[in-house]
Amino acid sequence: MEYSLLCQSSFIISLHSVKNKLFLFCIMLSLWVYMLYCCVGYCSTMPSFVIDSAGRKMERLEEDPYLKIQSRLPKNGGELDSSLPFIKALSRDLLNNENEVDSRAEEWEEIKGEQRTVEDSTMSGVVNGSETKKLPQAIIIGVKKGGTRALLEFLRVHPDIRAVGAEPHFFDRNYEKGLEWYRDLMPKTLEGQLTMEKTPSYFVTKEVPARIYTMSKDTKLIVVVRDPVTRAISDYTQTRSKKPDIPSFESLTFKNMTAGLIDTTWSALQIGMYARHLERWLEFFPMSQMLFVSGERLISDPAGEMAHVQDFLGLRRVVTDKHFHFNPAKGFPCLKKPESNSKPHCLGKTKGRTHPNINPDVVQRLRDFYKPFNQKFYHMTGHDFGWD
Fold first, then answer.
1. Residue 14 burial (C-beta neighbours within 10 Å; 0-12, 13-18, 19+)
2. 145 annotated binding-site participant
3. Is 19 among the catalytic positions?
4. What pLDDT is recorded for position 33?
5. Euclidean distance between the first and final Cα of the chain, in Å?
6. Binding residue per annotation — 264?
7. Is 146 labelled as part of a ligand binding site?
8. In 211-253, which ranges are E strands?
């Protein structure tokens, strides 16, 4: 009897132990399954990699060339990788304002806006496959710090215009890559839509007029011009924001300050000699194919200037005063949707920088220097911009 009870108790204890072990096993199995699930989920979110010609791992990028450039821009103020081909192409003398890295970086916010506009405005074209890439029929060729970014953003509102966001620099820096490379940078357009791009350095680059003429002698050219003295100070301000230790504006202006000899080799001053640059363009294009937009009026009366631009491009006057809202904090107009309470879209934070105080005597000397160039420019274009 006692032996039977002992055996029964041993059996119960053994069964209880097995249950505990089984329970623990189930818990451990569940934990392992959960960990495996987490690892698989994490791996699926990681970017895929390819190996470049140097054997380095690189993230696989989208086919859009501007997304490729965007992915290589420095984050949080980091250093640019000078070994990358596009960085080598952009490496220029910062002091002479030939370096466009800073201006390109400023454009990515606008490019993102362009991508949203593309998705909204051309979905029907994507569905029926009627979109194609074309070489630009109109180009904003200048000038730097004149208001070219604002003009491009205003034009993008028009449903009959499609424009590439960042500056291609094809005719001055990438011409050897060929027209097909250039065409591939352009956005897809529907029949009847106009393809555009803007690269402000074209206007002052000697080789560009002949190259654009070779592409198409019918290309329409737009130049946004601004008081050359104010433009030069704005140019200097942008450069100083990237390189604070550069010499003062006054010291860069003169070869010899005592003699008052202007240093015309400084590109910030060269750009403002508009008449000299225009002479090269008139060797290839008639004045009827060129439109000169006032950078000052683009701020004070954007709708009025946009009316002239739309007429020049042969477009309906779609962009009107209903599309603009003046931002007193920034000092220039922002875009808004007509009949909408949505927040106006303004240009990036880097636009509208505060200019440094320049010696009034230096400003006056520059005005005297530019006056004959301005008068000749007024005569050539048939328009007095009122800078004197």
1. exposed
2. yes
3. no
4. 72
5. 124
6. no
7. yes
8. 220-225
Q: Is residue 234 annotated as involved in ligand binding?
A: yes
Render the burial of 259-270: b for 16+ CB within 10 Å, e for the rest.
Answer: eeebeeebbbbb
Q: What is the pLDDT of residue 237?
A: 95
- Does the annotation list 354 as a binding residue? yes
pLDDT at res. 29: 81
Query: What token pair was written down for 128?
Result: 């029926």
Residue 303 neighbours by CB under 8 Å, 6+ apart: 319, 320, 321, 323, 324
Res 187: pLDDT: 97
The pTM assigned to this predicted structure is 0.70
Q: Which amino acid is at 100?
A: E
97: tokens are 């304002």
The residues, ordered by sequence, that sit 6+ positions from 166 with a Cβ below 8 Å of its Cβ are: 66, 69, 104, 107, 108, 111
Q: What CA–CA distance (Å, rounded) separates 369 from 364?
A: 9
CA–CA dist 223, 210 (Å, integer): 17
φ/ψ (deg, to 5) at 298: -65, -25
* Contact status, residue 195 vs residue 187, Cβ threshold 8 Å: yes
CA distances from 335 to 146, 154, 262, 313, 343 (A): 18, 7, 39, 20, 9
pLDDT of residue 39: 58
Structure tokens belonging to residue 261: 């000899």
Q: For residue 352, say whether it is annotated as part of any ligand binding site.
A: yes
What does the pLDDT read at residue 97? 41
| Catalytic hit among 144, 145, 198, 220 | 145
Report the chain's C-alpha Rg in angstroms.
Answer: 30
Which candidate, 62, 51, 53, places its Cα nearest to that of 85?
A: 53
The CA-based angle 34-37-38, given to 5 degrees, is 90
- Indicate the Cα dihedral angle 268, 374, 330, 153, nearest 10°: -90
Domains and CATH numbers, the chain: 92-121+133-381 (3.40.50.300)
Q: Helix 148-156 to helix 101-121 angle, to the nearest 10 degrees?
A: 10
Residue with tokens 């931002």: 327
Q: Which residues of the chain have pLDDT under 70?
A: 1-19, 34, 37-129, 341, 348-352
| Residues contacting 294, CB < 8 A, separation 6+ | 224, 225, 226, 305, 385
* Predicted local distance difference test score (pLDDT) of residue 350: 57
